[in-house]
Amino acid sequence: FGVQSNVRMGIDFKLQVLDILGTELSHNLQQLSEKARSTTEFIQRLKGMSDKVTESCMEFERLVHAQCEALIQAIHDRREYLLEAIRMDKDTKIRILKEVYCGKETICTVDGLHFNSMYNARVKAFNSAGEGEYSALIGLQTAEVAWFTFDPVLSGGAGSGLIFSKNNATVSVEGWEHRVALGSVGFSRGVHYWEFTIDNYTADTDPAFGVARIDVARNKMLGKDEKSFAMYIDRQRSWFQHNSIHERRVEGGITTGSTIGVLLDLERHTLSFLVNEMPQGSVAFRDLYGVFYPAVSINRGVTLTMHTAMDAPKMDYF
């Protein structure tokens, strides 16, 4: 009896130990499972953080690029403003001292005067005995509005492919490549308005209207380089374009007989367009400083006539 009791007690003790070990093992396995799950979640969080870091870096790169572009544009605009101020100051000083003609003729033509401006002039005579005194100043008032035509020479000469007629007021071209025609005067101040009449529009093409620097690319659509500011238009809609960036699509196109108005306001330094005497969108371009020439680009199937010496329409600047 004593031996059997000892055996049963030994077996019970072993079973209790196994139960304890099993419970502890189950607990440890549960802890390991929780740690594995926590580790998996941590790895997922790390991966998410990596994606967010990549996205944030890309966004920061885009932001820096945009801010650098804006800074470059601001520097460019400021440079143009300062150069224009220097030119105007130079013009003021030259107007005080400039001698425009010396010779035997009693009549002379002075080129390069601004429109709607007052100039003072004086003359003096001289002969073999010497020079006389200057005359009293007389005031010369230039025309209030600008009269000009296309300039075949500025537009590239005989090799341009452009065909001018009606005293250089009408232009067309035979080829399919765009060609730029420039006006005969450049503007640096004042408010100026001119119109184009579409005499012929038979092709599926986009004539472009606007202004350009004297060194604009003459074998591209107007607005394709940094030297020109334009609106190009077809039968249904138009876009504004500068330096090959076109934006702000506006519904409303042209046909034969349509008119395109160009308003260059160098007091506000803006450029606006009208189609059939109605504004085509809001102000197209701002911060325009320097000298700008009236310009248009066309290709085959388009003939247009330019009308100048026109009063500027009243516009809402928005």
Description:
30% of the residues lie in helices and 27% in strands. It is of the alpha+beta class. The chain folds into 3 domains: 1-95; 99-144, Immunoglobulins (Immunoglobulin-like), CATH 2.60.40.10; 157-307, Jelly Rolls. The strands form 4 sheets. The protein has a 7-stranded antiparallel sheet, with no helix packed on it. The chain has a 6-stranded antiparallel sheet with strand order 7-16-9-10-11-12, with no helix packed on it. A hairpin with a 2-residue loop joins strand 14 (270-275) and strand 15. InterPro entries: B30.2/SPRY, B30.2/SPRY_sf, ConA-like_dom_sf, E3_ligase_FN3/SPRY, FN3_dom, Ig-like_fold, SPRY_dom. Pfam families: SPRY (PF00622).
Give me the secondary-structure topology.
Blueprint: H1 2-97, E1 118-121, E2 126-127, E3 130-131, E4 138-141, E5 162-165, E6 170-173, E7 179-182, E8 191-201, E9 208-212, E10 228-233, E11 237-242, E12 245-251, E13 259-265, E14 270-275, E15 278-279, E16 293-298, E17 302-307
Antiparallel strand pairs: 1-4, 2-3, 5-6, 6-17, 7-16, 8-13, 8-17, 9-10, 9-16, 10-11, 11-12, 13-14, 14-15
Q: What's a quick, concise take on this entry?
A:
The chain is α+β, with helices and mostly antiparallel strands. It contains 1 helix and 17 strands.
